[in-house]
């Protein structure tokens, strides 16, 4: 299928998007007001201290509000039925002019079904929910603090080179507990700034009842998780990040929802559908979760308003959309391999409703917020995913290249390194065990001291850990993503407390104490990560055109490529060093070493002279007009498992 054949498909998709956008613009005061429905749905105190409550429950027979404010009377405060399945309740102020529902008090929606059931529900628009220690069910808390947090700092501008630090607030501490927003603000943000990352991607913020779900079984979409602290503390975290020049992205889960009923969206109005498809189409075959009906007007209201809520209320700068592959196809990617054949991406197996939702989301976000960043977690390789909406694309800025970390793990298990060019891709280094643990395993427990010589396992592992990060940074795509802890070679693995591990927090933490102990080699790996990011900030290879790979020598285990004004030279051979190695160069001139993984500061052996100048010659080599011999009089320029970067 040629690109000319694809044009009708792209035009067709754009037509569907344009039709839906026109409906949004013509109804309810335009898409700006429509996507701010969080201002009128849920629970709100108005300027005169009266209260407005509004819900969408099309299958309900009657709806009531109960809570602390009325002594938990189940029938005293009925909602009035409105058009299109909406229900509304207005409460005047008390006699002393205070609001009828006080800040931090508990509420419940009572739904009476046509079948005679009485259901106790949390509003889908609830902005704060908490779980008592004596219960497994979350409570809806009306959050209306007398002194809400006021932002002090402007948003940073979108960077040319995106260097993302992916983080989970709850594990961001060496202690065996759930860490807090405040801990992250005061103890983790300074580390991220020092490392040179200009963007943070926060996971597991949207409230999820099951901690071990890693935040991907969302129960309350408008609630910041209370297990880490209050909404105001999250706002402060983001504001302080902005003061450091760091953007903050939310890992948003609009691909599915938890099956929980009493504290989730499932069966909110007693029906099998409401926010979701009814029947089998509304259930994910693998994730045991519910699937949204993106063709529903009220579901579009809910999800698009949810995106704006996180930006307007909390100050987030964009989103990583989770589970995009599942959204794009009726088969959800389950049991389907993607070879790159266009027929796999265009046809009846594509879910056009969810595709149009993603196009709408990207269009609205980029129209309203100039510097908003959107990233798609897609493993299928859907063409046009990161093309503008007006071209029939989905409009994402980046696609997360999940295959890159997977390929690294395969290589470490006995595969090989495959050099490919990828576009619009931040990349992560994560796996079941951490990257460092795959490389060094149990030797990390006894041999990471810098006060003793490295044994062969630690030596090779430390050098490869640096090389893998830099090769991915330089060749992986147009952005770089690091999961917290990988910057210093975090040992072991990640596992949340659950029944299977006796509810242990031992592996649900990040041991920053290791990098703070300066006689351990974790500090050396940390400093390399810092200087790698700072070097990129200076030379900007992530924002440059795709790399030109001039050497992929299987026998020598040498990889050489150019990107921007930088030449990257890698020797992966476990035993061989090379002298007089000819390097192809596009731009003639003098080159010097700017980043060297063999530097003593990074746990290397210090075998390279950083004062050496390297001059190109007009000798064509590997399809480049110029070349240079790298330090021909130094017989051990390339030592086992090291690399260096040579900017012009």
UniProtKB/TrEMBL annotation:
The keyword Kinase does not apply. CDD domains: AmyAc_bac_euk_BE, E_set_GBE_euk_N. Transmembrane segments: none annotated. Residues 175-455 form the Glycosyl hydrolase family 13 catalytic domain. InterPro entries: A-amylase/branching_C, Branching_enzy, GH, GH13_cat_dom, Glyco_hydro_13_N, Glyco_hydro_b, Ig-like_fold, Ig_E-set. Its EC number is 2.4.1.18. The gene is gbe1b. GO terms for cellular component: cytoplasm. One of its GO terms (molecular function) is hydrolase activity, hydrolyzing O-glycosyl compounds. Keywords: Glycosyltransferase, Transferase. The lineage of its organism: Eukaryota, Metazoa, Chordata, Craniata, Vertebrata. This is 1,4-alpha-glucan branching enzyme. Residues 628-648 are annotated as: Disordered.
């Amino acid at each position: 299928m040629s690109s000319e054949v694809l044009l009708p498909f792209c035009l067709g998709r754009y037509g569907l998007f344009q039709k839906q956008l026109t409906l949004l613009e013509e109804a309810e005061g335009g898409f700006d007001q429509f996507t701010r429905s969080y201002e009128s749905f849920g629970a709100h105190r108005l300027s005169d201290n009266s209260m407005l409550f509004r819900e969408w429950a099309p299958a309900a027979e009657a709806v009531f509000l109960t809570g602390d404010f009325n002594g938990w009377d189940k029938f005293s405060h009925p909602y009035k039925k409105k058009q299109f399945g909406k229900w509304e309740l207005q409460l005047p102020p008390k006699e002393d002019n205070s609001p009828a529902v006080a800040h931090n008090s508990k509420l419940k929606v009572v739904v009476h079904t046509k079948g005679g059931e009485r259901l106790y529900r949390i509003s889908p628009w609830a902005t704060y929910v908490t779980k008592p220690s004596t219960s497994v069910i979350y409570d809806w808390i009306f959050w209306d603090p007398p002194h809400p947090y006021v932002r002090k700092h402007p948003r940073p501008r979108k960077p040319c080179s995106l260097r993302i630090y992916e983080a989970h607030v709850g594990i961001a501490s060496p202690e065996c507990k759930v860490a807090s927003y405040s801990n992250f603000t005061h103890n983790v943000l300074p580390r991220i700034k020092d490392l040179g990352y200009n963007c943070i991607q926060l996971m597991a913020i949207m409230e999820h009842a099951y901690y071990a779900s890693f935040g991907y079984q969302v129960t309350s979409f408008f609630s910041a998780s209370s297990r880490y602290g209050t909404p105001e503390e999250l706002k402060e975290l983001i504001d302080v990040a902005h003061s450091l020049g760091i953007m903050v992205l939310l890992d948003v889960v609009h691909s599915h929802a938890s099956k929980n009923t009493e504290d989730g969206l499932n069966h909110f109005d007693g029906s099998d559908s409401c926010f979701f498809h009814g029947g089998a189409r509304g259930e994910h075959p693998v994730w045991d979760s519910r699937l949204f009906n993106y063709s529903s007007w009220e579901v579009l209201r809910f999800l698009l308003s949810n995106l704006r809520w996180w930006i307007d209320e909390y100050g987030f700068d964009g989103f990583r959309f989770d589970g995009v592959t599942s959204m794009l196809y009726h088969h959800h990617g389950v049991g389907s391999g993607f070879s790159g054949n266009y027929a796999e991406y265009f046809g009846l197996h594509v879910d056009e409703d969810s595709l149009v939702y993603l196009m709408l989301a990207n269009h609205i976000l980029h129209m309203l917020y100039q510097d908003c960043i959107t990233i798609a977690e897609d493993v299928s390789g859907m063409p046009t995913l990161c093309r503008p909406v007006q071209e029939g694309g989905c409009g994402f800025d980046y696609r997360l290249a999940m295959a890159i970390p997977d390929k690294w793990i395969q290589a470490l298990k006995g595969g090989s390194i495959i050099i490919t060019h990828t576009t619009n891709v931040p990349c992560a280094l994560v796996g079941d065990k951490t990257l460092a643990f795959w490389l060094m395993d149990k030797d990390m427990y006894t041999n990471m001291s810098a006060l003793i010589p490295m044994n062969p396992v630690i030596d090779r592992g430390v050098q490869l850990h640096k090389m893998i990060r830099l090769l991915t940074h330089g060749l992986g795509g147009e952005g770089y993503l690091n999961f917290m802890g990988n910057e210093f070679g975090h040992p072991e693995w990640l596992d949340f407390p659950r029944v299977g591990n006796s509810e242990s927090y031992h592996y649900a933490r990040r041991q920053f104490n290791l990098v703070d102990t300066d006689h351990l080699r974790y500090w050396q790996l940390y400093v390399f990560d810092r200087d790698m990011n700072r070097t990129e900030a200076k030379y900007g290879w992530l924002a440059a055109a795709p790399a030109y790979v001039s050497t992929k020598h299987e026998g020598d285990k040498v990889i050489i490529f150019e990107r921007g004004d930088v030449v990257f030279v890698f020797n992966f051979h476990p035993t061989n060093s090379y002298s007089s190695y000819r390097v192809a160069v596009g731009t003639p001139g003098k080159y010097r070493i700017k980043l060297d993984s063999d530097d003593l500061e990074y746990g290397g052996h210090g075998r390279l002279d950083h004062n050496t100048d390297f001059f190109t010659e007009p000798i064509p080599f590997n399809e480049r007009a110029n070349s240079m011999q790298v330090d021909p009089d130094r017989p051990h320029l390339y030592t086992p498992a090291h690399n260096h970067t040579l900017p012009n």
